Amino acid sequence: MKNTFMTLGIDRKLVGILNENGIVEPTSIQLQTIPLLLEGRDVIAQAQTGTGKTLAFVLPIMERIDTTKDFVQALIITPTRELALQITQEAKKLAPAKDMNILAAYGGQDVEKQIHKLKGDIHMVIGTPGRLLDHLRRGTIDFRQLKILVLDEADQMLHMGFLQEVKEIIEQTSKERQTMCFSATIPEEIQSIAAKHMKKPARIRVHSKNITLDEIKQIVIETTDRGKQEALLQAINEYNPFIAMIFCRTKRRAKALNEALQSGGYNSDELHGDLSQAKRERVIKALREAKIQFLVATDVAARGLDIEGITHVFNYDIPQDSESYIHRIGRTGRAGETGMAVTFATPKDQNALNIIEKQIKMKLPRQKTLKERILQDETLGDTSKKPSRRGRDEFKGNRKGKESTFKNHKDTRKSATKESDFKKDKDTRKSADKNSKRDGGYKSSKEKHTSRDGKNRSFSKKDSPGKFSNKNNRKR
């Protein structure tokens, strides 16, 4: 018999809402966890992001909560505001089937409004450790009758330093509760929490051929610190993403890179901890609606984001460890879709990259930047022939693709979608081809690469995407 949500024990009304939202068949993690959770078992579930973990615990909660009782019966702890908001949105879609009241409790919102809502009959709370502890210390929330506790993205709460706060929250919940732990990885510290606070938990792991998602093509582009920004822009033009996330190590680097992209005509925005909660929510909403094409983000801000349509992830700065790498690339290739992850590695990143590869048990294929590959092709080719135009043709084709893919965003990246730009410069490019052959480089009238004195590259608002300028180039 075919597995459906109803055969798993989910109420017909809930299944109806799922079907209305295009969810018909349960995923592997849902098939394995839902029956156990409906029985009241404690569960530790290990699965990659994008495998349907949220519904794996939200649906059993919906079935097990008694909405005739007016106290908090379920608590979901998440590492970030964005993930708390995301889970809340999913849960509220299902709530009408059970007349359930749900509250999201995270920082950046008016605490007094949350306190006012908590005076009503709230059945489920979804929140971050800091704000939950704030309510506990104020005495505005009570978990002593809690029936279900969920730790979502548990490994990331550990990485972000929330382990002690999580322990403190757990200590103030009912000892008779059911506990669920969902995580992409299960470090020793998480296993320690499980041993102390869970009752003979069932351990579930959704296997894939590799530790990282099989649906994601992963490559490493070798570059330098100075050439990294140019390498990113060349990769964007080469792979032509529908929506892409670009990860930076720090807030300052994310902000600087977003400004560079915008000045180059790219439709981008940034997401990091320095933004107000209102701004962060606006950015995420715009990304969901495909109103922006590139999101430059830090690890913390992007934890657990589930955005449909993300085709590419660019690791502009290499992740600090394999767990961060898994979470980053998990923004694409979600729910069975394919995706691509590109990591930019400088010589000083090689040790960190080797460690990541060892931990994920996979050797990531290396390649040179697009510019270097074009130069290599020209060097290896017949010198009597005209220099290769493949790189420019690829850029040209990608720009055409963007014109049709983003027809609703005609006001963005205009220079990247105007075929006339290329026709007008036809004669100039032919001349540049001759120069390229003579100088051994890839140059055009619209492109000026790093000067021989090695000065940093800058972007001009006049330049179309993928075209670069260097204000410090010597005049010839």
TrEMBL record:
Record's keyword annotation contains Transmembrane helix: no
Biased composition, class Basic and acidic residues, residue ranges: 390-465
A GO CC annotation given for this chain: cytosol
EC number(s) from the headed UniProt entry: 3.6.4.13
Gene Ontology biological-process annotations: response to cold
Polar residues composition-biased segments: 467-476
SUPFAM superfamilies for the chain: P-loop containing nucleoside triphosphate hydrolases
Region feature (Disordered): 373-476
All copies of domain Helicase C-terminal, residue ranges: 215-376
One Gene Ontology molecular-function label: RNA helicase activity
Origin superkingdom: Bacteria
PROSITE patterns: HELICASE_ATP_BIND_1, HELICASE_CTER
UniProt domain Helicase ATP-binding: residue ranges: 34-204
InterPro entries given in the database record: DEAD/DEAH_box_helicase_dom, DEAD/DEAH_RhlB, DEAD_box_RNA_helicases, Helicase_ATP-bd, Helicase_C-like, P-loop_NTPase
UniProt KW keywords: ATP-binding, Helicase, Hydrolase, Nucleotide-binding
PANTHER family xrefs: ATP-DEPENDENT RNA HELICASE DEAD, DEAD-BOX ATP-DEPENDENT RNA HELICASE 47, MITOCHONDRIAL
Protein name: RNA helicase
Native source species: Natronincola ferrireducens
Classification of source organism: Bacteria, Bacillati, Bacillota, Clostridia, Peptostreptococcales
